[in-house]
Amino acid sequence: MFTVPPVMLRPGANLIHVQVTGRAKLSDGLTRLVIGPGIAVRQQHYEPRYEWQVTSVAVFTGALLVSGLVALFFWRGEGRDPVLFWFGVTALCWSFSALLLLWPPSASAEPLREVLAFARRHSYATPLLILCLRVAGRGRRDLEIGLWSLFAVGCAAAAVDGIAHGAGIGGAVSVVYLGLTVGCLAWLLQLRRRNADCPCVLLSLALITLVLLSGHDWARWIGYADFDDMLLAPFATPFLILALGANVVRRHVEARRAIELSNSELERRVAEKAQEIEQTWRRIEQAQREQAVLRERQRIMADMHDGLGSGLVSLASVVQLRTIDFSEVERRLDDLLTELRATIDSLEPIEGDLGVVLGNIRYRMRSAIEASGAHLVWKVQPLPPLDDLTPDRVLAIQRIVLEALTNALRHAGASTVTVSAHADESRQQIVVVVADNGNGFNPNRPEHGRGLRSMRERAAKLGATIEIVSKPANGTEVTLRLGCRTTGADGVVLHGAGRA
User: How confident is the model at residue 91, as a pLDDT?
Assistant: First the structure.
C-alpha cells in the first residue's frame, strides 16, 4: 500500500507509472491496482483478502500444529500406532509449510532461499501420501523410501540449479506430486469399490478438493490462471488432514472397542478355564481322597495282619498245644488289646499334637503300670505341633514308646519309670525319653536284639533316630528324636533332623 501526496495529483486524469522488479522465470507477477481513498481501499480490498489469505491460514496452522502434537503424544502412550504417528508428522509438516508461506525467512544465500521455497511448497506432500497409504492399510517401506528420496532430490536440485532453473524444478516436482495425489485418489476409490467397509469416503472427497485447488494454484503459478486469484491449496490441505484425522479417530475407537471385546472374550474364556480347572481340581482332590482312604485301609489291614493277625495265630498255636498257661494267654491277649487300641488311637484326629499321642499311651498303659506296682513319673512339656503327624507315623511312635514301657514293666523289674518329652529348639527336634531304674541289659546281646531292632526300624521309617543306653543293674534309657517343623522370623518353614 502506497500513499500518494495530494500535491502530485492534478484535477482530471492522472497517469501513474508502477515499476515492478521480479524474476520472470519464477512466475512473479503484479496483482490488480486499486486506487482510491486509503480507508475505503483498505476496508474493501486489503483487509478481506488479508483475513482470507493470512489470518485463516494462520488459524488452520495453529489448529493442525496442536492436533499434530496431540497425535504424537497419544502415539507414544498407546502402542505406537503408525497411522497416528504419520498423522502427527503430516500435521506438523503442513504447519511448517504454512509458516514458511506466511512469514518467509530472510536468507542471504541463494541456494538456501531456493531450498526453503521448495520445502514451503512440498514438505507436507510426502508424509501426506504415506499417511494415505497407512490409513488404507497398504503401507510399504519401499514406496515410503521412494517418496522421501523424491523430496531429497528436489531439495538438492533446487539448491544446485538456483534461480535459472528454479521454476522448472518446482513445476516438475509439483506435477509429480499432483500426479501421485491423483493416483492415490484413484487407488482409494478403487479400494472403496472393492471393499464397502474401507474408510476412504471422507479421504477421497478431501483428496478431490486438494487436487482441484492445487491444480488452480499450479495454473496460477505458471501463468494459466489469473495471478490476482488467491492461493487455494492452503484451504484444501487442512480439510484433507482433518479427514485423515477422522479416520484415525475412527480407527482408534474401533481398536479400543476391539480391545474391550477381546478383553471381555478373554475374561469369559478365563472364567470358563478357571471353572474347568476348579472342576478338574475337585476331581483330582476326590481321587486323592479316595486313594488316601484306600492307602489308609491297606495300611490298617497290613498293620492288623502283621500285629493282631500274627499275635492271634501265635496265641492259637499255644492253645492248640493243650498245655495252656492261662497267665501267658492273658498276657498275650492284653498285648493284642493294646495293639488294637493303639491302632484305633492312631486314627483319631489330633491336629499334630504329640502330647495327645503320649497321653493316649499313658491312658492305655495305666492298668499295666498299676499291676506292675511301678511308679510312673510324667514329665511331658508343651510341644510344638507337627504338620506331618499322620496316622501311620502316630502308630509307629506309639509302638516305639509302648515297646519301651513294656520292656521296663515286664522285663526290667523297674520300680520307677519316667516318661519325658521336650522340644530341642537348637536342633529343631522333639525329644521323647523313656527311662527306668530296672535291671538293665546288654543291648548287644542277640537275645535282646529282636525288640530293639524293631524299634530302630520304626524310627528309621519315621526319619527319626533312637538311642538305647542300658547296662546290667543300671537301668535303661530309650531316647527318640523326632525332626519337627517350625516357622522362622522370615516365615520360612525349617525342618530339623534327629541325631543319636
Answer: 81
Instruction: Report the mean per-residue pLDDT for the chain.
Output: 76
pLDDT of residue 490: 41
The owner of cell 500435521 is 91
Single out the residue of 238, 208, 205 nearest to residue 98, CA to CA: 238
* Sheet containing 429-436: order of strands: 375-380, 416-424, 429-436, 476-483, 465-470
The list of the chain residues with pLDDT below 70 reads 22-29, 77-79, 107-108, 135, 161-171, 174, 185, 188-189, 191-204, 207, 237, 240-241, 244-245, 247-248, 251-252, 293, 296-350, 444-450, 485-500
Cα separation, 99 vs 88, in Å, equals 17
Angle 166-194/201-222 helices, nearest 10 degrees?
160
| Residues sharing a CB contact under 8 Å with residue 178, sequence separation 6 or more, in sequence order | 211, 214, 215, 218
Model confidence over 257-288: pLDDT tens digits?
A: 888 888 888 999 999 999 999 998 988 988 88
CB atoms within 10 A of CB 168: 12
